[in-house]
Design a protein that fits this description.
Elements lengths: L8 H16 L7 H14 L7 H7 L11 H14 L2 H4 L2 H18 L7
Helix pairs in contact: 1-4, 1-6, 2-6, 3-4, 4-6
């Protein structure tokens, strides 16, 4: 698979950094669906294995489990899965940096307090 213009590591990194900042500044408080997706992926990360496209897709399926999740978060996770489907791009310095930022975001969301719903 070729990396499309939509799945550029620099954009994924920037999107992840923006969501990290929004969360840290209190501009965005993750809801239950955001946290469920993050916790599912955080559980994969705790195994010590690298994040994979299959893990992301598994966490986002069925769609009902993440219904109501932040659209930017879902777009970021789908983009990250696409990046991980392109090993050459994912293994590049920029690709690894992008995935690292996504993992930092997942850690922050999984460990955050749930928003009052």
């Amino acid at each position: 698979m070729h990396v499309s213009d939509e799945i550029r590591p620099e954009e994924i990194r920037a999107q992840a950094a923006a969501l990290i900042d929004q969360h840290a500044l209190g501009v965005w408080t993750p809801n239950g669906a955001d946290r469920r997706a993050a916790v599912a992926l955080f559980d994969f990360l705790e195994t010590g294995r690298p994040l994979s496209a299959e893990q992301i897709r598994s966490a986002l399926s069925p769609a009902a489990s993440v219904s109501g999740a932040n659209a930017d978060l879902l777009r970021l996770l789908h983009g990250t899965a696409g990046l991980l489907d392109a090993p050459q791009a994912a293994d590049s310095r920029d690709g690894r940096d992008a995935v690292d930022h996504v993992c930092l975001l997942l850690d922050a969301l999984a460990l955050s307090r749930p928003a009052a719903e």
